[in-house]
Design goal:
Layout lengths: L12 E4 L2 E4 L3 E2 L2 E5 L13 E5 L14 H4 L12 E2 L2 H11 L2 E4 L8 H11 L6 E5 L5 H8 L4 E5 L5 H8 L4 H12 L3 E7 L8 H14 L5 E4 L15 H13 L5 E3 L4 H5 L1 E2 L6 E5 L4 E4 L1 E2 L2 E2 L12
Parallel strand pairs: 5-7, 7-8, 8-9, 9-10, 10-11, 11-12
Antiparallel strand pairs: 1-2, 3-6, 4-5, 13-14, 14-15, 16-17
Helix pairs in contact: 2-3, 4-6, 7-8
The chain binds iron/sulfur cluster.
The site of iron/sulfur cluster has 11 residues, from loops.
Cofactor: [4Fe-4S] cluster
EC number: 1.97.1.4
Protein name: Pyruvate formate lyase activating enzyme
Length: 311
């Protein structure tokens, strides 16, 4: 419980008297790009998202490429550069652009109230709302969010609590609980794992993470993200394509049907293959969907269903 006048660790909530104030009715960006860029590969492929980023995050990852916006309130060098948003304006722009809405780049659970206000207007307009989240939510927050968002992509950044604590400053188990609960509630779920040197990049860590994802569901898409030296982790090399290829192999060995790498393995790393006949059924470029040979969510060649929300 915050004391009067105290700001939370996140830096974007403050108690003033009996009122809890939030700075997250604001965004540092508003741009439209492909759902594939979030990344969502099995949710409305070829669709576009109006992307918002309310300032702040519940984690302090040393590799954060978005630290200039995620660490507002934690680091004095990060200036406030967010603009207030009106949910009606956000939804009107999404409708005009024929786009859905995604909260990304920072931690959307800190902007739960903004999400609620946006969803209240977006849902009647037929606009879907997605989150790209670190998954560190209380059960109460998951309960509220699961009734709001149509899809989530959640990071699993380490295999064990000690490694996760060292990397993010938070324990792992609440993240896994969040993933299981979103899946149980029927929210479309994709998982992302950045290959961080010293933690998740180790093959045994990747294998443990892959098994945890497969335990939620073999159909859950698993996105593997190349490490790039930045922020407080500039002394490490980028992940090699060979290590990413090995990570893909580990994912398939754990039973996952859909394991993806955005760039380093070329077009095959982004392609969806049919689990029935192994034919490529969805092709993607780095920036967008290129071709889908699905018919009603099924392989056009062998009729095997491919899990996803395809329209
Ligand atoms: S959870 Fe994501 S946005 Fe937050 S600090 Fe970690 S990498 Fe950055």
């Amino acid at each position: 419980m915050l004391r009067d006048g105290q700001v939370g660790t996140c830096g974007v909530r403050r108690r003033t008297g009996d009122v809890l104030e939030t700075a997250t009715f604001a965004t540092v960006m508003q741009h439209v790009d492909a759902n594939e860029r979030k990344p969502f590969y099995h949710f409305r492929p070829g669709g576009r998202s109006l992307t918002l980023a309310a300032p702040g995050c519940t984690f302090a990852c040393g590799y954060c490429i978005n630290h200039r916006i995620s660490q507002y309130g934690r680091e004095s060098s990060v200036d406030w550069d967010a603009e207030p948003v009106r949910p009606a304006d956000v939804v009107a722009r999404a409708v005009a652009e024929g786009a859905d809405i995604c909260f990304s780049y920072t931690e959307p659970s800190l902007a739960l109230e903004l999400t609620e206000a946006v969803v209240a207007l977006a849902r009647p307009a037929g606009v879907r709302v997605m989150w790209k989240s670190n998954g560190f939510l209380t059960p109460e927050a998951v309960d509220r969010a699961a009734g709001l968002v149509d899809a989530v992509n959640i990071d699993v950044k380490a295999a064990g609590t000690a490694e996760h604590l060292r990397l993010t400053g938070a324990p792992l188990e609440p993240v896994l609980d969040t993933i299981r609960e979103f899946a149980r509630r029927g929210v479309w779920l994709e998982i992302t794992t950045p290959l961080i040197p010293g933690t998740s990049a180790a093959p045994d860590q990747l294998a443990t993470i892959a098994r945890a994802v497969a335990a939620v569901g073999a159909q859950v898409p698993w996105h593997l993200v190349r490490f790039t030296p930045t922020y407080r982790m500039t002394g490490h090399d980028p992940t090699t394509p060979a290590d990413l290829a090995e990570a893909v192999r580990i994912g398939h060995a754990a039973g996952l049907r859909h394991v993806y790498v955005e760039r380093a393995l070329g077009a095959p790393g982004r392609a969806t293959r049919c689990p029935g006949c192994d034919e490529t059924v969805v092709r993607r470029g780095v920036w967008r969907l290129e071709a889908s040979e699905l018919t009603g969510g099924r392989c056009a060649r062998c009729d095997h269903p491919i899990d996803g929300r395809w329209n």
